[in-house]
Design a protein that fits this description.
437 residues, alpha+beta, Beta-Lactamase, Alpha-Beta Plaits, 3 domains, five-stranded antiparallel β-sheet, rod-shaped
C-alpha cells in the first residue's frame, strides 16, 4: 500500500533537523512512520527510507512500545506534552532524552498524526540524578545525626528542623517552623550569646562560630547546648542561609560541675574547702577596701573531739563533724561562708553589714550550739555491732577583723589562727578577738 505524499518539503525538513540536535519522527494515526530524521534512523541502525511505512510497535518492540503508548494516545487526542524517558537503543545503549509529542494537524485542524522530537539530556539527567542521590544521602545523614540540624534563611527564619532537634528541644517541626528560633529557644538566663553569634554571621564579620548556651525545652526543663554555626554566601558575599549543628552537652556540663564541686568542697561535710574560702576572703577584702565595710574571720577548733575518735572510732567522729557543719551553718546568714580546713578546724567568714559587735555575738551563738550534746551511732567489738553514742564538745574561737587589722588574706588568717590558740590557752570554750597588738 503506497502512502500519500507528506504535506511538507522533505528536503527542507532534512536540512533543519540536521542542525537542531534532536531526533525527529512523524507518524500518522495508524502509528506508521511518515518521516524520520537521519539521527532518528541512526538510533535504530537503519537508513531513514527503511523506516517509512513501518509501525512504532514494529520498530520498538511490543514491551517498549507499551511503555509509552499512553503518551501517544494523549497526543492523538490533541494534547501537546513533554516528558523525560530513559531510552534503550536496539544496540543496548541507554540514554536519557526529553521527548516532545505535538499533534500533527491537517488544514482543517484535525489531528492526523504526531510529530515526535527527542533531545538528549543524558549528561544533565545523570548529573541531576547524582545530585539527587547526594542530597538524599546528605539529608539522611542530617536527619540521623546525633546533632540537631537547624537551617535558617538570611533573616533567621527557620527553614529546617531535623528529627534530632525535635527530640532535643521537644517541639515538632510544624511548631518550630512557625516561630523565631531565638524566641523558641529563649535562654531563661541570658540569650545574648546566641544573638551575637547569629548577628556576626548575618553581617559577614565571621563565616563560622561556636557558642554555648542554656535553653528551655518545651516541657520547661533546661538544656545546655553547644552551637556550631556557619553561613552560606553567594558570589557577591551576601549571606543566603545559616546552618547550625547543635549538640546537647548537658551531661558534660553536669560532670564538669560535679568535678568542680568535688575540687572546691570538703568531701565529708560538703562545706567549701580551704581554696574556696581563700578566694571568698580575698573577694570580701577587696570589696571592703572600696566600701570601708567590716570583714571578720572566725577560726573554730573543737574541744574534746579527739576523745570521740579514740573512744568510739572515726565513723562516730565523722558523724560529729557533719553535725558540727550543720550547726555552724545554722548560726550564720546565707550570705556568710562556713568552711572546713581539715580535721576539727572550721572557719566562718562574715561579710556585708558587719558591725564591730557582730563577731562576738556570732561566736557566742556558735559556742552555745556546739555545747549541745552530739548523738551518733558507733560500732563496737569489730563484729558489726552498732550502738548509740553521745559526746559533749566545746569550741575555741579566734576572730580577726578588718579593719582595724591589715587587709591581706594570709595575714588575716594568721591573726585569726593565733587568736584561736590564745582562746585555748585561756581555758577553752571562749572567743578571743585579735587586736593590733
Amino acid at each position: 500500500m503506497s502512502l500519500p505524499p507528506l504535506d511538507l518539503q522533505s528536503e527542507m525538513l532534512d536540512v533543519i533537523t540536521k542542525h537542531i540536535g534532536a531526533t525527529i519522527s512523524i507518524y500518522d494515526r495508524s502509528l506508521k512512520f511518515r518521516y524520520v530524521s537521519e539521527s532518528f534512523a541512526r538510533w535504530f541502525g537503519v537508513a531513514p527510507e527503511q523506516m517509512i511505512g513501518r509501525s512504532l510497535e514494529e520498530m520498538y518492540g511490543s514491551s517498549v512500545f507499551a511503555g509509552y503508548k499512553a503518551y501517544i494516545d494523549r497526543a492523538l487526542a490533541g494534547e501537546t506534552l513533554t516528558y523525560d524517558r530513559l531510552l534503550r537503543s536496539p544496540a543496548g545503549e541507554e540514554t536519557w532524552r526529553t521527548v516532545s509529542l505535538v499533534p500533527w494537524r491537517n488544514a482543517a485542524g484535525e489531528v492526523i498524526g504526531v510529530v515526535n522530537s527527542a533531545l538528549s539530556v543524558h549528561e544533565l539527567k545523570t548529573t541531576t540524578e547524582a545530585l539527587r542521590v547526594a542530597n538524599q544521602r546528605l539529608q539522611s545523614h542530617m536527619d540521623n545525626s546525633p546533632l540537631a540540624v537547624l537551617e535558617f534563611d538570611a533573616n533567621l527564619n527557620l527553614s529546617h528542623w531535623s528529627p534530632r532537634a525535635e527530640t532535643m528541644f521537644g517541639w515538632s517541626a510544624d511548631e518550630a517552623l512557625k516561630t523565631s528560633v531565638v524566641s523558641l529557644l529563649g535562654n531563661p538566663i541570658d540569650d545574648s550569646q546566641i544573638r551575637v553569634a547569629f548577628r556576626l554571621l548575618q553581617t559577614g564579620d565571621t563565616v563560622s562560630n561556636r557558642v554555648e548556651a542554656i535553653h528551655q525545652r518545651k516541657d520547661g526543663s533546661t538544656i545546655h547546648c553547644e552551637w556550631f554555626n556557619s553561613a552560606l554566601t553567594d558570589r557577591a558575599g551576601k549571606v543566603t542561609s545559616i546552618m547550625s549543628l547543635v549538640q546537647d552537652v548537658s551531661a558534660r556540663v553536669q560532670a564538669a560541675e560535679q568535678l568542680r564541686y568535688i575540687a572546691e568542697h570538703d568531701s565529708l561535710t560538703g562545706l567549701p574547702n580551704r581554696s574556696v574560702l581563700h578566694s571568698h576572703v580575698d573577694r570580701a577584702l577587696r570589696r571592703a577596701r572600696r566600701t570601708m565595710e567590716l570583714v571578720a574571720l572566725l577560726f573554730i577548733d573543737l574541744d574534746g573531739f579527739k576523745a570521740v575518735n579514740d573512744t568510739y572510732g572515726h565513723g562516730a567522729g565523722d558523724e560529729v563533724l557533719r553535725e558540727v557543719a550543720r550547726r555552724l551553718k545554722g548560726c550564720v546568714r546565707a550570705t556568710d561562708t562556713v568552711a572546713r580546713l581539715g580535721g576539727d578546724e572550721f572557719v566562718v567568714l562574715l561579710e556585708g553589714d558587719v558591725s564591730p559587735e557582730t563577731p562576738a555575738l556570732v561566736g557566742a551563738r556558735i559556742l552555745k550550739s556546739i555545747n549541745l550534746p552530739f548523738h551518733f551511732t558507733a560500732g563496737f567489738g569489730g563484729a558489726g555491732i552498732l550502738r548509740e553514742g553521745q559526746a559533749q564538745l566545746g569550741a575555741s574561737i579566734g576572730v580577726a577583723m578588718h579593719p582595724p587589722l591589715e587587709s591581706h588574706v594570709d595575714s588575716l588568717f594568721k591573726r585569726a589562727d593565733a587568736a584561736m590558740y590564745a582562746a585555748k590557752r585561756s581555758g577553752k570554750g571562749r572567743v578571743c578577738i585579735a587586736d593590733l597588738d
